[in-house]
């Protein structure tokens, strides 16, 4: 433990008393300054992945719940899933997709 403590003190001391081998003046500081890269797009991909997981997870849970209710004999679910009503449910999917795209925007702009 004493050796580890001594090494830590040594590294701390060396980093504090070490100097550059060249003179650092204002003009050198501007040349040597490294600007951080633009990482704005990295965060949005995580939100897209999370949104996709939530979207498909919600669809999965909704379909599973409706299927269990249909098998359980719930009357309003059986009426909802008749053949003439299925077409309205299938039409609802692209309509919801288009509304989602309109709300999201095209992503282009200034």
Molecular structure report:
By secondary structure, the chain is an all-alpha fold. It has a domain of about 55 residues. It has five helices and no strands. The mean pLDDT is about 75.
Shape: elongated
Q: CA-to-CA gap between the ends? A: 58 Å
Going by helix content, strand content and strand pairing, the class is mainly alpha
Order of helix and strand elements from N to C terminus: HHHHH
How much helix, percentage-wise, in residues?
over 70%
Instruction: Give the biggest sheet.
Output: none
* Residue-averaged pLDDT: 75
Radius of gyration: 31 Å
Q: Which stretches are poorly predicted, pLDDT < 50 over at least 5 residues?
A: none
What's the β-strand tally?
0
Number of helices: 5
Short characterization:
With about 110 residues, the chain is mainly alpha-helical.
List keywords for this structure.
110 residues
Spell out the blueprint of helices and strands.
Blueprint: H1 2-17, H2 26-32, H3 40-72, H4 75-80, H5 83-104
